[in-house]
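Q: Could you predict the 3D structure of DUF983 domain-containing protein?
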Amino acid sequence: MSAPYYPPLSPLSTGLSCSCPRCGKGRLFEGFLTVRETCPSCGLDLKNEDSGDGPAVFIIFVLGGTVVPLALWFETLFEPPLWVHAVLWGAAVIGGTMALLRPLKAYTIALQYKHKTPHRPPGV
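A: Sure. Here are the predicted structure tokens for DUF983 domain-containing protein:
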């Protein structure tokens, strides 16, 4: 009996769908950011997956590169009081972080799976 074949999947598609990097069907998270120990669909061992600080760094680059120019443009155009900036951009940063953290963590794990990081035994 041979092992099941899983065609290679795009890390971007599995990351955006927050699904298993091997089969693309099972859910990767069991909470908001807690990675499952195994994939419920294909049984891939996920307990050693660790994305580290990668997703946070991506979010800093994406949101910093987006929010700062928007805030400067908004200040130049409307000159609002400081509290408007604090409320508006604070909410934008918090909302953007919550929206991007899960898919970017899943994308980082999918990239690690695709490129076989050292903690993963060969052929798994």
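Q: Anything worth pointing out?
A: The radius of gyration is 19 Å.
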